[in-house]
Structures are given as structure tokens and as C-alpha cells.
């Protein structure tokens, strides 16, 4: 039997994409009566809406209708949130705006140009209020309150104690602590948000086309907001999505907005977001302040951690937030054997745009302080950073390893992977070069980072935002279910329907590989249907493209669905040949008796019987071949009464080594080499894997060196175009060496774990560690990002002034 799984098969998606045959949201849904929408957005970060005059705008020829917050107030309920704070969030501002870019009104016209012209005619009177954008400032007693009915800007607060934290700190030889800041930045996919909504008054039903990368978990929230049964909201996702990286989950308020607007205006409504809207108003990552303390022994062993994490979720806490705080809860101690942990977690609201899912969700914010403190431990002890990491890494013999907070790391050999990164990067050799360079006035540095990459999130993790008592009074949540459906027609051709809503990751290719191997048929005989329809697709709440869940969960659902088809074909054949099913095998389109290969039955014939001759089937067997499998992992249990939670199904590992040089004249950081080693269990397609790694690294590189959604102290947005919001382009991508180790997961049938988000999490801190290492001899330390030349230049200048004055 030909092995296909694990091979570098070229992508089946590429032919249509490279020939311009892709089907994206803007290719759909334009009819003669479709109205095109434009959205009026607030120029103020915080203000009362005194009045909205739309009379002049409504007079413009071609305008079909204009909708404001007051128009929808009685028709919608606020979106439900996963916290107890009574935050009221609507898709249009009702009586108050809370961030620059918040939707205030929506215009529907015969075309986008007319709608944009009408926006300029709408007169809005505002009463400005004091704004707050500082994370810690928002928690002060005199801070302006965004939501008066909440009473404070704290949307969620939980504290967790695991192990003997006080004992660890009392017995420590020293305590190393610092404050770190992680910036707010986004993912800038090529394709922005797009929605085409059509309300059907005859059935009181909404049909929405949208490039949502997984609407299932939020479909109920949208239906509740629209005050309809969930089966009255049909969401259709096109075959192709031009990138997401998580942030397209934030499209859901616009789905509701366009839906209710279609109802009020009386025509289908199409809205395609422009880039300025996307930067100012779409979902982004959270900015976080972290206070971290490590209890340390003189040999470099870290025995305990205290972390105070404060996430800024923006003007409204909205689904799935405050998940950023808890997504990596189980792996809060990273790749290290640290048994004692205290976490003090806050989600606060400020006058910035709301946050949500983004590639590496919560991992960037977690690993930045964790891996920086490990370098600081080395500095305090006079040790090499490498040696501190090696001292604390979880050992191979400890797997499956249970973390202090309840994570169950399924497999790994972290020490081996880390040593491979060091040897590939020639760590010792670079250290010698660094010493020589410093003697000549050059600033070279090496940065290290080791991170655990979680994949396949447990739906129960978000309920850690509630206390055990609060959870006892709500619906328990657990699991990570994903579904796949496989059908075979009378001629033996196969259709596979997946619900993982891919946005460029190659799900169609890997799905075809799995089915090809299980059924022993050519990939060309398999058609993978990636379009999603919540009315017809097999799905669960957890389905979608996030949390790197396809490799661990989506592939497992496909694998087991294919085996159900295989088993049915075997049962049909066994009945025809008069043998036991256990005697059969399958290869090259033929089912045969293992001990007598000449006794065989074409797979196509078995399929044909299921369709054309159902009376020939074994007694009790249903006609046809159409099998659905729902897969979930037993390790994805709800949090227990002690707040222990295994927040993911599988856990991969990434070890990075990056070398940099800082130009003393321009303070620019040049990455010399980037070495990254990944253990994602069994690789399903190495060719696709390396592409995903490069994409994640580019995203992390952007956060390290260039990208920040910046606001001034008064809440005005400063980075509304690519002139100000800098993204790395091809020339900025360094030389990258990718290596792999494999420790197959015992929890998934193919041994696969998720991959592709790891370097998004590791790159910001690895590069920061390298820059700090380059500047260490000048006694300079940088504790926030991005590492822009102006920031480094100021620190270099201050260091020179210090030397001069002394």
C-alpha cells in the first residue's frame, strides 16, 4: 500500500489559486437589488452621542437607507459575554462611542461610491469625554469609566494558586523580578472582512455569506443578538479566505449589523471592509502588562513563579475574550519544570479597539515575560542563558508531564530539540565571534527561546474566567469536537466535506492525503469540499480554523470518517466473497483476501452495490456510502474545583536561536540568522509545514521589530495606514533554517500535533533576547516592543550620556 501521509505532496488548492479561479467573498452575492454598505465611524475615542442627523444623506440619489444605533436598539440584544461584568455591546454605538473607529451609522446605497458620499452628509453631534488608553491607568480610582453600569474598567479578575508558591519563594536563594509590556498589534491578512447579508421576511431568516474562519462557536451569540432561533441564521463561508490568522473571528458584529440592516432597508447588503477600517476597527491582539517574579536557586533552577497579567481588551470585552488570558493557562510555565505557580489575571477595558483571536493567541503575551525572565535569571547568576534553559527544561522521561496549572503535555524531548537548535546555529562559535566583535565596537547578540506550542483548544478553558462557584451555576464546557463527512458515489469517486474553514493552510491537500491512504485510491479521485454552510455542514461548536486544530483534531475526524467508509466497503466485500472481514485488505482500488490475493473485489464495485443494489447488502446495512465522524479527545475535560485545566489537546515544542547585529549609527537591528527547531509530532505534509512556519515567523518578526497599533495618550489612533503601521516585507525576512524532531502524540491517531503558530509566539521574545544580549555590555535592558531604531537609539544615547557624565 502506498504511503501518502507524511509526504511532501504539492497542494491541490494551488491550481485554482494560481490561475485566478479562487472564490473569495467579494466574488459572491452581487445581484441587481444588492445594496452596498459604508460605515460611519467615530472620530472620538470617548464621547456621548448627542444627536445624529441623516436627513441630507438620505436625499442623495441611490441611497437605499441609513441605520443608526437608535434604529437597532429595540431589535437587538447586546452580545453575550463570558464574564459576569454586565458589559453591553451592540454592533453600532447607541448613546456613547468608546474608541476611534467605532461604528455609528451604516449607509446602504446602489454602490459603494454613493454610500461613501452619503457618509459625509451625516451630521453627528458629540460631547467629548476624557479617554484612557493606559492599561494600569484604567484600573485607578480616578480613571474615566467606559461602562457606567459596570462601575469600573475591570471586566474580569481571577487569581490562581498552584503548588506551594510561598514556600518556593521563602526558600529561594534569590528572587528575580521585572515588569514587561507587550504591544497591541494585528495580522493584516491580504483579504479584509466581507459580509453579504440577506433577510428573508417570509421565513424570518437571515442568510449571510462571510469570510468567517469558524462561525460555530459564536453563531449562538449572533442568533441571540438577533433574537431568533439559531437555525434562522444561516452562515455560508466561501471556499477561499485570503488569510485570517485568527482575526476574522472578529467579523461577527458586522454579520449581525449587515443582517439587521438588510431587514430594515429591505434588500441584500454587501459590505467589504477597507484597509483603514481594518487597522482601526477590526480585531487585534491584546496589549499586556506583566509583572513576573521567579524564585531561583543558585544553580539556576527556578522553583516558582508569580505573574500578574493585565490584558487590555479594548473598549468592549467581546467573545471570545477574556480568552487571551486563559488560552495558555495550562502551559503557563512553558517548557520548564516549575511546580509552583501564582497567577493574578485581569482583563481591563480602555478606549482602544476591541481585541480577539490572533495567531499565537495569548502565547506571545505569555512567553515574552517568561523567556525574558529566564535570560534575566542567567544575568543575575552570572550564568550562560543556555545553561539556565537546560537546567529547567522538562526531561523526556517526565512525559506525559502534568503542569502546575493542570496541563498534560502529551510527548516530547525538549532537551534534544534545544540542543539541535544550538548545534545548528553553532552557538559556541557565535559566542566567540561576539567577543571579538565587541572589541572592535560592534554589537552582536544571540537570543534563545524555548516554548510549548498548544494546539486543539479545550472548549472548557474559557470557563476558567469564572470562579468554581460561578461555573457550578452555568452550563459545563469541555471537549474539542471536529467533524468530517465522506461520501463515495457509485463509480468509486469520493467527496470529503470538512468544517475546518481553511484560510490558506492546505487543509484540502492533507485531507486528500489521509483519505487516499486509508482507502488506497489516488488523490485525483478525491474531491475535498471546504465551503461551509451552517445549515448543511456537519459541525460542532468547536469547529473552525483556529488553535492549530486541524493537524490534531481535523485530521483525526477525517481519518476516522475514512475508516468508517473503509469498514463499510469491507463489510460489503466480505458478504460478497463469503469471508470474514478480518481476512481482507485493500490496495490499488481492490479489496482482496490477504492469504489469497487472487480472490479480490473492486472497491468501485462494492460502492456500486451500495447505491445500485441495496438488497445485496448485508442484513441491517443502510444503502449508500455516506459517513460522518465527530472526533473529540478525552483529555479535554472541564476545569476542576481547583481551577486545574488541560486547556489544549496536544502540545508541540519550539526551540529558537537568533543572532543579530545592531548598527551603532542607525540603531537598526539586523537579523543575521534565525534557527528554529520544531517538534509537532508526526508531520502530515512537511512541505506545507515549512510554509506555515515561515508565515508564523514573519508575523512574530513584525511584532518584534515593526508593528504596533499605536494611540496617543488622548486615545487618538496613530497608525491608520501602512505608511504608519509597518509590516515586514520580503526584504526584511531573514535567513531561516528550519529543523524538525518528531515525538508523535499518543492522543491522536496519526500522532500529529498542531503547528504554524509557534514562531509567532517565540520570535518576539527570541529577537528581544538577542537585542538585549547585544546591549548587555552597555547595561541596557529593553522590556517592551517593538524594537524600533528610535527606541534603541534613545537607549544608546542615554548610555553614552551616562558614561560621559560619570
Characterise the protein shown here.
- With about 800 residues, this protein is of the alpha+beta class.
- It is built from 20 helices and 29 strands.
- The strands form 7 sheets. It has an 8-stranded mixed beta sheet with strand order 3-5-1-12-9-10-11-22, with helices on both faces. A 5-stranded mixed beta sheet has the order 7-15-14-13-8. Strands 18-27-28-29 form a 4-stranded mixed beta sheet, with helices on both faces.
- Helix 15 runs parallel beside helix 16 and helix 16 crosses helix 17.
Which helices and strands, and how do they pair?
Layout: H1 14-18, E1 35-41, E2 47-53, H2 55-58, E3 63-68, H3 69-72, E4 96-97, E5 103-109, H4 112-119, E6 123-128, E7 154-162, H5 165-170, E8 174-182, E9 194-200, E10 205-210, H6 216-226, E11 233-237, H7 252-265, E12 269-272, H8 275-281, E13 287-296, E14 302-312, H9 323-326, E15 340-348, H10 363-381, H11 385-392, E16 401-402, E17 408-409, H12 414-425, H13 427-439, E18 443-457, H14 468-472, E19 482-488, E20 494-498, H15 507-519, E21 526-529, E22 532-533, H16 549-577, E23 584-587, E24 590-593, E25 596-602, H17 603-612, E26 626-631, E27 648-662, E28 669-679, H18 686-705, E29 736-741, H19 758-775, H20 789-805
Helix pairs in contact: 6-7, 10-11, 10-19, 15-16, 16-17, 18-19
Amino acid at each position: 500500500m502506498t504511503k501518502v501521509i507524511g509526504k511532501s505532496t504539492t497542494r491541490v488548492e494551488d491550481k485554482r489559486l494560481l490561475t485566478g479561479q479562487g472564490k473569495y467573498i467579494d466574488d459572491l452575492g452581487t445581484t441587481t437589488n444588492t445594496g452596498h454598505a459604508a460605515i460611519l465611524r467615530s472620530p472620538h475615542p470617548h464621547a456621548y452621542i448627542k444627536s445624529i442627523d441623516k436627513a441630507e444623506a438620505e436625499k442623495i440619489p441611490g441611497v437605499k437607507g441609513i441605520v443608526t444605533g437608535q434604529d437597532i436598539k429595540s431589535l437587538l440584544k447586546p452580545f453575550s459575554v463570558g464574564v459576569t461584568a454586565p458589559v453591553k455591546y451592540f454592533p453600532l454605538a447607541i448613546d456613547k462611542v468608546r474608541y476611534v473607529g467605532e461604528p455609528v451609522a451604516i449607509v446602504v446605497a446602489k454602490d459603494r461610491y454613493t454610500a461613501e458620499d452619503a457618509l459625509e452628509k451625516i451630521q453627528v453631534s458629540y460631547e467629548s469625554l476624557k479617554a484612557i488608553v493606559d492599561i494600569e491607568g484604567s484600573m485607578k480610582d480616578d480613571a474615566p469609566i467606559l461602562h457606567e453600569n459596570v462601575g469600573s474598567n475591570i471586566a474580569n479578575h481571577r487569581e490562581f494558586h498552584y503548588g506551594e508558591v510561598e514556600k518556593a519563594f521563602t526558600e529561594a536563594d534569590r528572587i528575580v523580578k521585572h515588569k514587561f509590556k507587550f504591544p497591541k498589534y494585528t495580522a493584516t491578512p491580504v483579504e479584509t472582512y466581507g459580509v453579504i447579508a440577506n433577510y428573508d421576511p417570509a421565513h424570518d431568516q437571515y442568510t449571510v455569506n462571510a469570510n468567517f474562519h469558524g462561525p460555530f462557536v459564536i453563531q449562538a451569540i449572533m442568533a441571540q443578538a438577533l433574537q431568533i432561533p439559531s437555525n434562522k441564521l444561516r452562515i455560508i463561508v466561501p471556499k477561499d479566505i485570503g488569510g485570517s490568522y485568527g482575526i476574522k473571528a472578529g467579523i461577527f458584529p458586522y454579520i449581525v449589523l449587515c443582517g439587521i440592516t438588510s431587514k430594515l432597508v429591505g434588500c441584500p447588503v454587501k459590505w467589504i471592509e477597507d484597509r483603514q477600517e481594518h487597522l482601526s476597527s477590526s480585531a487585534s491582539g491584546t496589549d499586556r502588562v506583566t509583572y513576573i517574579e521567579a524564585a531561583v536557586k543558585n544553580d539556576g533552577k527556578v522553583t516558582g513563579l508569580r505573574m500578574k497579567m493585565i490584558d487590555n481588551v479594548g473598549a468592549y470585552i467581546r467573545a471570545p475574550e477574556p480568552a487571551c488570558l486563559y488560552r495558555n493557562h495550562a502551559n503557563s510555565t512553558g517548557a520548564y519544570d516549575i511546580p509552583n505557580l501564582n497567577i493574578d489575571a485581569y482583563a481591563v477595558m480602555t478606549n482602544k479597539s476591541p481585541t480577539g483571536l490572533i495567531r499565537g493567541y495569548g502565547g506571545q503575551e505569555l512567553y515574552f515575560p517568561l523567556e525574558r525572565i529566564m535570560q534575566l535569571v542567567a544575568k543575575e547568576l552570572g550564568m550562560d542563558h543556555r545553561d539556565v534553559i537546560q537546567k529547567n527544561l522538562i526531561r523526556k522521561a517526565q512525559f506525559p508531564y502534568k503542569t502546575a496549572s493542570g496541563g498534560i503535555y502529551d510527548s516530547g524531548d525538549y532537551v534534544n530539540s534545544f540542543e539541535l537548535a544550538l548545534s545548528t546555529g553553532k552557538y559556541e562559535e557565535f559566542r566567540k565571534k561576539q567577543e571579538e566583535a565587541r572589541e572592535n565596537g560592534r554589537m552582536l547578540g544571540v537570543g534563545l527561546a524555548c516554548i510549548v506550542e498548544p494546539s486543539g483548544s479545550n472548549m472548557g478553558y474559557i470557563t476558567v474566567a469564572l470562579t468554581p462557584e460561578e461555573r457550578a451555576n452555568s452550563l459545563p464546557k469541555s471537549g474539542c469536537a471536529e467533524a468530517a463527512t465522506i461520501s463515495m458515489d457509485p463509480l468509486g469517486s469520493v467527496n470529503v466535506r470538512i468544517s475546518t474553514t481553511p484560510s490558506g493552510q492546505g487543509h484540502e491537500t492533507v485531507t486528500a492525503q489521509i483519505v487516499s491512504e486509508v482507502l488506497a485510491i489516488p488523490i485525483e479521485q478525491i474531491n475535498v469540499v471546504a465551503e461551509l454552510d451552517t445549515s448543511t455542514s456537519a459541525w460542532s461548536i468547536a469547529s473552525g480554523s483556529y488553535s492549530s486544530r486541524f493537524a490534531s483534531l481535523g485530521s483525526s475526524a477525517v481519518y476516522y470518517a475514512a475508516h468508517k467508509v473503509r469498514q463499510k466497503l469491507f463489510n460489503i466485500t466480505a458478504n460478497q466473497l463469503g469471508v470474514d472481514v478480518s481476512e481482507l485488505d485493500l490496495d490499488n482500488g481492490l479489496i482482496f483476501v490477504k492469504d489469497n490475493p487472487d480472490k479480490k473485489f473492486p472497491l468501485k464495485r462494492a460502492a456500486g452495490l451500495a447505491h445500485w443494489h441495496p438488497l445485496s447488502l448485508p442484513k441491517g446495512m443502510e444503502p449508500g456510502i455516506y459517513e460522518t465522524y465527530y472526533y473529540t479527545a478525552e483529555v479535554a475535560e472541564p476545569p476542576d474545583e481547583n481551577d486545574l485545566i488541560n486547556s489544549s489537546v496536544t502540545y508541540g515544542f519550539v526551540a529558537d536561536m537568533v543572532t543579530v547585529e545592531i548598527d551603532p549609527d542607525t540603531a537598526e537591528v539586523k537579523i543575521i540568522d534565525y534557527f528554529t527547531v520544531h517538534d509537532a509530532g508526526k508531520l502530515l505534509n512537511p512541505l506545507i509545514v515549512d510554509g506555515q512556519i515561515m508565515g508564523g515567523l514573519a508575523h512574530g518578526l513584525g511584532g518584534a521589530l515593526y508593528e504596533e497599533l499605536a494611540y496617543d495618550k488622548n486615545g487618538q489612533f496613530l497608525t491608520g495606514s501602512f505608511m504608519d503601521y509597518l509590516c515586514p516585507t520580503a526584504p526584511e525576512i531573514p535567513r531561516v533554517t528550519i529543523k524538525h524532531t518528531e515525538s508523535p502524540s499518543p492522543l491522536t491517531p496519526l500522532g500529529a500535533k498542531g503547528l504554524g503558530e509557534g514562531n509567532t509566539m517565540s520570535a518576539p521574545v527570541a529577537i528581544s533576547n538577542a537585542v538585549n544580549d547585544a546591549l548587555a555590555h552597555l547595561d541596557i535592558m529593553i522590556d517592551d516592543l517593538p524594537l524600533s531604531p528610535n527606541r534603541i537609539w534613545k537607549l544608546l544615547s542615554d548610555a553614552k550620556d551616562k558614561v560621559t557624565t560619570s
